[in-house]
Amino acid sequence: MPGRLHNLALCFDARFKRLGQLGDLEQAITLYSRVASAPTGPITTRFDASQNWILCARHARHHSLFHAHSVAITLLPQLAWIGFSLTRRYQELRYGADVVREAAAAALDAGLPRTAVEWLEQGRSIIWGELHQLRSSYEDLSSAHPEHAHRLRELSSALEQAGATREQSLSAISEGIPNEVHDATESLQQQTDRHCTLAIERDKLLQEIRSLPGFEQFLRYKEFSQLRASAHSGPVVILNTAENRCDALIVLAGVDHIIHVPLPHFTFKRSADLQMILKNFLRHAHIIRSDDREGQRTTLDGVSWQTFLATLWRCIVKPILDALAFSVRHVIGT
User: Fold this and answer.
1) For each successive 10 residues of the chain (334 residues), what is the average pLDDT?
2) Distance in angstroms (rounded) separating the CA atoms of residues 316 and 312
3) Burial state string for 40-65 with b = 16 or more CB within 10 A and e = fewer than 16
4) Which domain of life is it from (predicted)?
5) pTM
6) What is the number of structural domains in the chain?
7) Which domain, by its residues, includes 280?
8) Which of 1, 3, 245, 305 is 20 to 30 Å from 10 by CA-CA measure?
């Protein structure tokens, strides 16, 4: 059913783009939201629907835009679901960073910096941590509940091995290796079933672990109250670059509110340009080292390190330090 509703939504969306009737756009938004919020159905279909919902709601300045971003964020962990193969998870998460950035920007537009910080942390955990979760550390669990920890390690190890085995079968089929295709095809369904069964069993075990005292948040994403504790040694600054805005969010220990610093002179395009410049500098590092002399500027494609760093200072660092009421003299220690 979600697939058919999504196709119908696409039809209304296409007709709106052709005829410009707002009623069609409203219908598309309604259908996209139903598909994205459905409890069942292919996760890729629901996630695609959430992205189309966001695009339509943004175009219409619809009241559901923030909710659409919220739904998209909740779907991200399912895209990285450990029951999928490694290749599938990498493919599905390739858009994850963009989704998180735009969702955080929407939260800031709505005046909800706490939500922006929580979503950015969730995105960081998913994108950078989910694919390495199979070998995560379970020291605390091992100390308090060794049997649960042992079972979790067994399931995680079995999942990793099952995923690798299934990848080999898929590779044999795609490459058309004559002696291996038949056997691989026969065993692929069995491997897929076992992989999903292990993942479901692991999810049930995680629910059981989270019912234990002190482990309610085991392998879950942190709320703001927990994130705030990370700033015990000093301010934590989170940068977010989205298509329509760039911001810094400053978390301080013992402070309930977040310092929100808009960065009007920094853009998503400038961020991408600076990233490319930095990569070029690093790629040609051997040239820089050999040509660099005291008092001589090193340049690459007309851009010097001084220009690169000056842009970062002017657009990002100085506004943040100003918001923290730091002086340049204090920073450089003179």
Assistant:
1) 87 95 96 90 85 95 95 82 60 76 94 92 71 54 88 76 57 55 58 77 89 81 72 88 94 86 95 90 63 50 83 95 73 52
2) 5
3) ebebebbbbbbbbbbbbbeebebebb
4) Eukaryota
5) 0.67
6) 3
7) 263-334
8) 245
